[in-house]
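Sequence only, no structure available. Ideas?
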Amino acid sequence: MSVSEESRGRDLSPEPTARSRLFEAGAEHEGRKMFAVIKTGGKQYRVAADDLVQVDTIAGEPGDTVTFGEVLVVGGDETLLGTPTVAGACVAGELVSQGRGPKVIAFKKRRRKNSRRKRGHRQDFSLVRITEILTDGRQPSGKAAAPADAPAGESAAPESGETAA
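Reply:
I predicted one. Tokens follow.
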């Protein structure tokens, strides 16, 4: 029995992939998860709500709210492309932790000259959990803006008539 006889009874076309099924003509695109492409630290990241993203170091303490204003693309049910950024869009997140990456060794050797140089480097990074993607100039929700309100509450105490000695 030859190969052509075995394949006669079945379709030899490749199986459709998940991506090709998604973008087939007439496929429903409703309910797709909203995403954004942000730029921070000279790099671009594709993020969605509840994503944990490792970015270059951002100043702040764990638990602080961070906002990324450079949003290049916002996608979901409809896609907005920025020129170069999307006007009125921002991505809010919570700073989870600060850390350092693995050590990278840079070693130079010049043969026959007894010349060697060894240098190590560890890149600092921040872990950020994306909380929401905002468009149309909206501000982060009350939950995300809570750390910004805390210093205002502390400054209100001396105004109540108490003086610091």
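The helical segments are 3-7, 18-22, 142-156.
Hope that gets you unstuck.
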